[in-house]
Specification:
Strand content: under 5%
Shape: rod-shaped
Largest sheet: none
Length: 194
Amino acid sequence: MTFVLGGFAQSLGRSLRGLVRPLFLPPNALNPAPQSGTTTPTSIKPAQDISVPALAPHKPTLAAKVPAPPQTPLKWAYDLAGIVATQLVLNFAVAPFMLLNVRNSIAAWRVVNWYGMVMIFGAMALLKVGLGAQLKGLRKRRDAAAGRREGEKEERRAREAYEKQEEGKREKRGEGWPALGVDLEKEVEKLKQE
């Protein structure tokens, strides 16, 4: 009974980590954009020296480190609620393992009003009925909105960099600087008008 209920609890935990946890993190925290300068498996070259002893220590070079998601107060509250719920379900599920008798296990679960079953199967039912799809949609909309905002920021940064580059070009040509001497073209125009 313990291990069967534990299987359902593990399945529910995976579903909640995939559907609920991302809502407590900043948008796109679990799938960040690749950073420049990171090593990819295709850029790693094989070793040239074949005479390396077979017992040489292995140095992992393929895995790129992904930073942990930021800890916000909302994420801390989610983590605390998860710890409490995990302990409650674990205490409920372990009773048959300790009692080693089906009749006594059912009696123990009846005494605590089957709260572990309600927590596990109630949450699973909610996710299957449609809450899971709504949570996925909410996450996609939130990440898309954050992506649009990030795209707008990138666009603004690119525009500012372009304007700065153009300003530098104008300065090199001498445009926009006050003339140190007489502007001959203006003087010629004045003479023509007179």
